[in-house]
Specification:
Length: about 270
């Protein structure tokens, strides 16, 4: 597993050397753009939108568009000057309950690993203290020149750091079209059946029970085409039930998801002598 960040956790006056490792990975299957006649990848070049010339990397600078068509350049040295020595520290600010953070704030997850043998004791102490407190640490961290709010929590036999969006990065749900037209008083019978449907579909969350069906189909399609096998034709979708109203749809859903009774196995009678 490749290290993507190296620094330390500042826990009061204690500094714990750590490394961060990306905890998740994107397994989407990426398709290349090909020339239909040659079946070869299409190259893309960086060109200037004004003069049309192809631009080499050493002629590219960063800039901010402060007005339409008006840019101010910002050099790498100027960006570096905004950082200080504390930028390699994960500064713990305070501790909160996990239930107080809405999932909308979570951005990306990283495994936290110890950086050296000398820091193992402090690392283990912090992990155990967080686990025993039943709380998570809120901290600041700078990754790739961007400051993030982060949550640190115990995870199995280690720790996990999850970057969070700042409040002004989360849009207001009031901006969603039509959200203000929702009905506040729902029909009691519809609510009863809806709650019954939720109860029937409620189960323990087990991640291994879920899979990316589309990706699995894509992998099979690619394997078949590489092997020169004919592509299976898509089966037609089952006809959708003709439901005329919400209540009927809910009742049909409850009936469809109702657990089927188990068949009783016949027990053999013992012969008496």
């Amino acid at each position: 597993m490749r290290t993507m960040w190296k620094g330390s956790i500042q826990f009061g006056l204690v500094y714990i050397p750590i490394k961060l490792y990306t905890a998740t990975e994107n397994k989407d299957i990426r398709l290349r753009m090909l020339h239909k006649d040659c079946m070869a990848p299409i190259n893309y070049t960086r060109t200037c939108s004004k003069c049309g010339q192809a631009i080499e990397n050493d002629a590219i600078v960063k800039g901010y568009e402060y007005a339409p068509g008006q840019f101010v350049p910002i050099s790498e040295e100027e960006l570096s000057s905004l950082q200080d020595e504390t930028d390699k520290h994960v500064e713990i600010i305070n501790f909160v309950k996990l239930s107080e953070i809405d999932p909308i704030y979570y951005e990306k997850s990283y495994f936290i690993g110890p950086d050296s043998g000398n820091g193992l004791r402090a690392f283990s102490l912090l992990r155990q203290a967080i686990q025993d407190s039943d709380k998570i640490a809120i901290a600041n961290i700078i990754i790739r020149s961007k400051q993030h709010l982060a949550a640190i929590r115990s995870f199995e036999n280690g720790m996990l750091l999850e970057t969070l969006y700042y409040p002004d990065e989360v849009r207001s749900i009031k901006e969603v079209p039509g959200i203000g037209d929702l009905i506040t008083e729902n029909e009691p019978k519809e609510m009863t059946i809806a709650n019954q449907l939720i109860e029937q579909l409620t189960t323990e969350f087990k991640p291994d029970h879920y899979k990316d069906d589309y990706r699995l189909k894509m992998e099979k399609l690619i394997e078949d085409k590489v092997a020169g096998m004919p592509v299976e034709k898509k089966k037609g979708r089952a006809a959708q039930p003709n439901v005329v109203d919400l209540l009927s749809a809910l009742e049909a859903s409850v009936k469809e998801t109702k657990p089927k009774p188990r068949r009783k196995t016949a027990t053999k009678r013992k012969k008496t002598v």
